[in-house]
């Protein structure tokens, strides 16, 4: 093996990867020499990553080009639907794709349209592996040293990035998350690597959850409504629920959420902790992945400290987003997941919102299974209106917006059922949309994610105050809810 043997394939990989990404990117890539050097380093590292598995230079170069082609296609789709480039934390979701392909706008691995290209690709790699000779040094000892040395060198480089010296250098390159700018400067690969190392090197600074006064409620219910916003904003009919919100809620308004069309966990985390995305550093892109539920400011932990039994209700797989483990750490004592819904009705592929509302009311009933006669805090995340909205989902309704509006009508009915069921109790009910739907009729504007809607009801009180329109961020809503669990002297709206 000679250096020249590796140089030409590496050069082809770097130049080809730049051409692929430049052609696919909606932004003009930076041509500053320093930016190009970092971008090309990223391409070189990807090539070396693949090279360590085969020691075949042209196979590694082709693997780099294929990696960039796939990343660029996914990046284009993600920008179109969600308005955000691919980010390092998206790699953690890869394991979810074959298990829940319907959630990622893809097909099962058993479908020939997916299995066919994968098998052809695998056969091509095997053939290439046989035809191209390995570029290992001569001699068994030298070959073994090279085979062990390259992975060790790549690992040492990653550890260097986590060292004080490496983190100082990375802070100069990536002082704060600015994904679109950094991808335009350094490319997808270098930005993903840099952001991942910045996240691993961050020290979490999290304020402790303080305890306020005696809770005023016997029941606090918070429901995150999948893809919910007022349908009139999409040209749909006015829900009866919206009239009740405007006339009966203690406060309501628009909710500024951290993402558009996806990333439910970002809104969940903001409401549960009262922490803005800017408080999370490079962990903002997937707070569950970054923090694993270890959140002293969690509403569930605060509720438990205030004497509430804590229940999480979500009619979907407990492994999705690793919710079962994360929500235990967040402070939820009891988890009601998909297997607990038994023969509950589905509307389309998911458990109906009305069925979820009925289960919530059963959980907070005075003689409920958890803490009978005691206080209860319930967080629920609905699923009925989860995308994608495509033909075949609903009988006789194929247009995506029409499907969405069909489901959102059920969402309105479910919330009205909760209002009626809690009206005679000393209770707080909060409902909010996690993000706007990823529909062709609702694309993210350049200014950021489309805001959703929220409403806060206080039952069992006669204060005579009219509803208040107050627009909030998801984190601010979480801070408002803290007062329902451990009120301050200034009151709920303080």
Automatic annotation (TrEMBL):
Record keywords: Cell membrane, Membrane, Transmembrane, Transmembrane helix
Kinase among keywords: no
Domain of life from the UniProt record: Bacteria
Cellular localisation: Cell membrane
Xref: Gene3D superfamilies: Alkaline Phosphatase, subunit A
InterPro entries per record: Alkaline_phosphatase_core_sf, OpgB/LTA_synthase_biosynth, Sulfatase_N
Residue ranges of every copy of the Sulfatase N-terminal domain listed in the record: 220-439
Secretion signal, residue range per the UniProt entry: none
Sequence intervals crossing the membrane: 6-24, 36-52, 112-131, 143-162
Membrane topology type: Multi-pass membrane protein
Coiled coil feature spans: none
Protein name per the record: Sulfatase N-terminal domain-containing protein
Organism of origin: Methylorubrum aminovorans
Higher taxonomy: Bacteria, Pseudomonadati, Pseudomonadota, Alphaproteobacteria, Hyphomicrobiales
């Amino acid at each position: 093996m000679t250096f020249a043997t590796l140089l030409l394939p590496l050069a082809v990989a770097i130049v080809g990867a730049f051409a692929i990404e430049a052609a696919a990117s909606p932004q003009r890539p930076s041509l500053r020499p320093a930016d190009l050097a970092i971008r090309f380093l990223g391409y070189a590292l990807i090539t070396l990553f693949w090279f360590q598995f085969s020691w075949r230079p042209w196979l590694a170069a082709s693997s780099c080009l294929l990696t960039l082609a796939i990343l660029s296609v996914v990046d284009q789709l993600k920008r179109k639907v969600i308005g955000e480039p691919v980010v390092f934390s998206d790699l953690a979701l890869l394991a979810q794709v074959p298990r829940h392909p319907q959630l990622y706008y893809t097909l099962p691995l058993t479908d020939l349209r997916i299995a066919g290209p994968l098998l052809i690709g695998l056969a091509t790699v095997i053939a290439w592996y046989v035809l191209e000779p390995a570029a290992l040094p001569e001699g068994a000892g030298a070959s073994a040293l090279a085979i062990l040395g390259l992975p060790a060198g790549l690992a040492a480089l990653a550890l260097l990035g986590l060292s004080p010296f490496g983190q100082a250098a990375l802070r100069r390159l990536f002082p704060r998350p600015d994904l679109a700018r950094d991808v335009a400067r350094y490319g997808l690969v270098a930005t993903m690597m840099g952001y991942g190392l910045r996240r691993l090197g961050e020290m979490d600074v999290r304020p402790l959850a303080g305890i306020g006064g005696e809770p005023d409620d016997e029941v606090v219910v918070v429901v995150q409504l999948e893809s919910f916003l007022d349908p009139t904003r999409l040209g749909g009919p006015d829900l009866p629920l919206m009239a009740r919100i405007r006339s009966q809620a203690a406060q309501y308004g628009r909710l500024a959420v951290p993402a558009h069309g996806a990333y439910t966990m970002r809104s969940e985390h903001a409401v549960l902790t009262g922490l803005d995305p800017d408080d999370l550093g490079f962990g903002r892109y997937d707070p569950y992945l970054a923090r694993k539920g270890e959140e002293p400011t969690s509403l569930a932990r605060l509720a438990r400290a205030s004497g509430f039994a804590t229940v999480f209700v979500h009619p979907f797989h407990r492994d999705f987003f690793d919710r079962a483990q994360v929500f235990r750490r967040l402070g939820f004592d009891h988890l009601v997941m998909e297997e607990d819904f038994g023969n509950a009705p589905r509307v389309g592929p998911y458990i109906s919102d009305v069925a979820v509302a009925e289960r919530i009311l059963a959980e907070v009933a005075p003689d409920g299974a958890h803490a009978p006669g005691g206080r209860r805090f319930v967080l629920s995340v609905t699923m009925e209106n989860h995308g994608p909205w495509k033909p075949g989902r609903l009988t006789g309704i194929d247009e995506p917006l029409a499907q969405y509006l069909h489901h959102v009508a059920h969402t309105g009915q479910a919330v009205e059922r909760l209002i009626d069921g809690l009206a005679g109790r000393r209770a707080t009910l909060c409902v909010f949309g996690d993000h706007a739907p990823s529909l062709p009729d609702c694309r993210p504007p350049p200014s950021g994610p489309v805001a959703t809607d929220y409403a806060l009801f206080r039952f069992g009180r006669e204060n005579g105050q009219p509803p208040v329109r107050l627009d909030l961020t998801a984190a601010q809503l979480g801070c408002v809810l803290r007062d329902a669990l451990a009120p301050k002297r200034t009151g709920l709206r303080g």
